[in-house]
Fold each of these.
Amino acid sequence: MKKPIIIFALIVSCIYLFAQQSSQLQASKARGEKVYEQYCLTCHQKDGGGVPKLNPPLIKTSYVTGDKKKLINWVLKGSTENVLIDGKYYSNNMAAQDYLKDNEIADVLTYIRNSFGNKASAVTPAEVKGVRATIK
Amino acid sequence: MKKTLFLLVVSVIVFSIPSCANKNKDTTQTENTYSGIMPDKDNAGLKLPQGFGALKAAEGLGEARHLAVTKEGDIYVKLSDLKNGKGIYWLHDANGDGKAEQMKGFGNFIGTGIYIKNGYLYASSNTEIFRYKLNEKGEVINQDNSEKIVTGLIDRHQHESKSIVLDDNGNIYVNIGAYSNSCQEKDRTKGSSGRMPCPILDSAGGIWEFKADKLNQTYGVGIRYATGLRNVVGLDWNTDNNTLFVMQHGRDQLHDLFPDLYDSKQSAELPAECMYELKQGANCGWPYIYYDEIQHKKILAPEYGGDGKKTGGEDAIDPVVAFPGHMAPNGLLFYTGNMFPERYKHGAFIAFHGSWNRAPEPQKGFLVAFVPFKGGKPNGDWEIFADGFAGTDVIQSTNDAKHRPCGLAQGPDGSLYVSDDVKGTIYRIIYTGR
């Protein structure tokens, strides 16, 4: 008799945790959208499609949906070099976004990783903090 | 069986009537059309003034930047991405219907600039200028043998394309774009101040002049013909007053970088995209000032202490025409042909590539504009000449545009050619009078 209760409790708490996580993700994403509009949209455009030859898209690129450390590092540092992004070069410069707070960067990255058709895990402020520490 | 046959006969009769009528219409159209070339039924998707038509002379060239047309009507197109390993394409219309059936690629370098003068085809990469000798039919004699005219020009990631034009005195002019938005200590970074004096101007941010027939020239022998130009892609030599005219791409991100001084609506309109008439030694003011087309003033750049109202640039010239912001003028052509009605003669056509920096406002541009000129001076307001390249009315994101006008050239019959660097369509605009 006890066993089913434990299993039931486990399932419920799993669902609860999952729901909480996804609602956390949703909340972070919503805050991230505001950050995106203010600091990224001009260049990467409303639909995340970028500008041909100039500003790369944020749609399913290896940076956006790939390794989180690499992504955080990119956004903190920006780029003024010729970098091959999924087979193409883009000729604008991206300023370092290190003036944004850890939680703002976490939110905006969670937003871009879960918008424009992307689906990837959330980025946490702690992860941003960790990468920032390796830069300074 | 009989029934089917009957139906077939009836339908042949019925369907041949309208097609007959169409044929009649076609012949009258041919008679009225210059050199027998017909516009596409939908005018290649373009909106044009009454009496004009358009056809797609070629498609699928990829990133078609600038183009040049020979006296025989062949087209050379410069690509900013290699197509089958080649950076220049030669297009030939063998049967005279206006559509190129033959295409041949050569030259293994990407770039923007291309120009024909005195029996040579000049073409630029992002660091060098080459030329190819043409035969009397306007064909490149040896596609593997080019001469390097200029070398070692700066390409630092941003504003890297080199546009070229020649005058009648054996000089070639090349744009060297500033590798910066507004010469801040840190490019495009909020709170970073403008460098004083801006060191970029020594080797970029202007137009340089070289000899058109000397090999391997570089900065040492070139002349900085004009300065204070952030980035120029469209430029042309005006033969009416023997002067160089250029189109500057104005600075970006006034609101992103100075949200307290500019709201996003102002930032979408400002600064003007400017046409300048350049005498040797001209200074157009970048990065210290920008031109505000609403106040009609040279305004001190906020990186240099400006607030959107303070004026500056007493030593800088005024533009001859000011257009709304960020429309990205990539092509300029003074029309000298005889096909178009009289008012177009001597006037300027400008190919606007279309904006991205107007976001979050809708984007603007993606059109060819016209400015009437007389004696080398504008004598009327600018107007939209050809529109509809983008294929949609509201363009929220630049990527929505299906085609973006980039280069302009005039054919021997007076046709106006427009290149598109999204898909590589070559448009030919003709006057039919209908």
Note: Residues 2-134 of chain A form a domain with the Cytochrome Bc1 Complex; Chain D, domain 2 fold (CATH 1.10.760.10).
Amino acid sequence: MITFEGVTKRYPDGTVALDDVSLECPTGKITVFVGTSGGGKTTALRTINRMVEPTGGRVLIDGRDVRDSRPAELRRGIGYVIQHAGLFPHRTIEDNIATVPYLLRWNKKKARETARELMERVGLDPGMAGRYPFQLSGGQQQRVGVARALAADPPVMLMDEPFSAVDPVVRGELQAEFLRLQAELHKTIVFVTHDIDEAIKLGDRIAVFRTGGKLVQVASPQELLSRPADDFVAGFIGHDRGIRRLSFIPAAEAPLTERDVLTAATPVATARAAGDWVLVVGEDRRPLGWAATGALPADGVLGEARLAPIGHTFTVGTDSVRAALDAAILSPSGRAVGVDGDGRLVGVADQHDLSAAITAAVNAAPEPADTEPADTEPAAVAEPADGLAPVDPVPVDGPEPGEPAPAEPASKDGVPD
Amino acid sequence: MNKLWNQVDLSWQWLTASGQWHGEESIPHRLFQHLLYSGAALLFAALIGLALGLLVGHTGRGGFLAVSVANIARAVPTIGLVLLIVTVKYSITPQVIALVALAVPPILVNTFEGVRGVDPETRDAARGMGMSEWGVLWHAELPMALPLILLGLRTSAIQVVATATIVAYPGFGGLGRYIVDGLARNDYQLVVGGTVLVVLLAVAVQLLFAALRRFAVSPGLRGSARSS
Ligand SMILES: Nc1ncnc2c1ncn2[C@@H]1O[C@H](COP(=O)(O)OP(=O)(O)OP(=O)(O)O)[C@@H](O)[C@H]1O
Ligand SMILES: [Mg+2]
């Protein structure tokens, strides 16, 4: 756990980059810092590895003041990834990755073996080990940057806009792989971004910073979307935060029906009695396509008729209502097809079913704040308040609460890009 | 054409005459003197230029001052230096100091620029991963500045090798001896022969630095660094 206790940073020129920030970044979780440019995110991140020394307050890692360790030693135990990777151009990829192991005086063979293992881990061909950074694409360099930070297996990782310099497609891949990696490694990660979508996608907790180095709100993504602390946060999240919230409602909440679902062996005559569209499924219950009952051939079975493609399905259990709604909108019949993990039909829902489920879920939403100890969330419990008045976070005191385990209705995989 | 060929032929005869290869007056001995003075001057210049350049480049403090002083020193006409060397006859030390003064600025300026030119993000990453200040200098800044540093060293080395000819005037030998004597005696064979030797030495220095560059500069940097 990384703890900020009333951390303030005032530069000699008078700029206040951090203003009395108190915050906790739970062990094994991803805490994302978002906010306006110049809001102090980078500064806050860099106080953790002492690249910036606060002028007030203190930063603790697992209860230990970072100032108790010498900077170089402290940093060797903390992974560090920056925007343009900052690779050493004169070192090969494997030697770049092995930077910290070399500093820790591992033997060279072990260091390089580790480097190659990590290359595979982050999705790089180990055959590139002997290349130099200028021979890599931006996305590949960023992967090397992540591998380099992981090399000595530090428990804490600091990442400052690591994916912001690559194109959206590569960014999506990097984010997905990052989540997959984190699911295996359970590092305590502080991740800076100015992209609210990235924050919602990656963050277990999100800390919103505002110009002047003020921490405005700390909350889980769903809570941030449902209860922004003030107009600044609401404005920062954007007008489509309602739509984004759907990412956190599991599609399983929607009632699924088997209405107008017929097998491929069904005679056309039977199908004609159903609604406008019927969903045709195979023997194994895999959906084959939509058949328009008005355009069916004179006789034969459904499997011989021309079927309209399904578009995409949603997976019941992992996907969110957002994915289901998207599937419904794109479907020729206006209905979304829900399948299980093996691609077999679970049921069908139309847009009415989905919107009813959404209304029910939003109204019945358990207050997310209830699921976390109140004193870890000083800013979040404030009422969505009067305009611009910032909400001052209350410094944490008293014994550490246990690791908060926010209940997440939908898993991370269910969050669409 | 004939005349030119005559000259070449004469210098060849001069170079290959057996008397040139043995004893106090021989080419190897003079070459040795020349290399000794140039080498000593270059060594001191490299120590001063590298130390100051690295220090100033790394800390980022005093950069303007150092570069200004170096450039002013460069602007002092070489003729002044020549006069100084020619008039001082009692010891070789002032001569070498003059050569050092000539050689420091290119090394200092290039080292400084090389270190300062290191991508700040890379430097930040180096620090952020736990390198000490020495580590940052040694493992990041120095290797990345190396192409420019070698360029500075080469510029200085060639200047020093060429300028060291004039220590022959006050009587300290070296390859300049042939040129000075030749001019005094109107012996063109000697002048041309001496000049050819100095030019060959300069070419050798070029080759040495080209080899050094291949050997010492990381392939990861060769693509981007200026080479001429
Ligand atoms: N070395 C410094 N000296 C003076 N002011 C600084 C220094 N570094 C940062 N600042 C100021 O501190 C404030 C916070 O900067 P910081 O880099 O932490 O912002 P940020 O939230 O990371 O912004 P961005 O999204 O643009 O990266 C800014 O106003 C910045 O100008
Ligand atoms: Mg920043």
Note: Chain B touches chain A through 24 residues (CB under 8 Å).
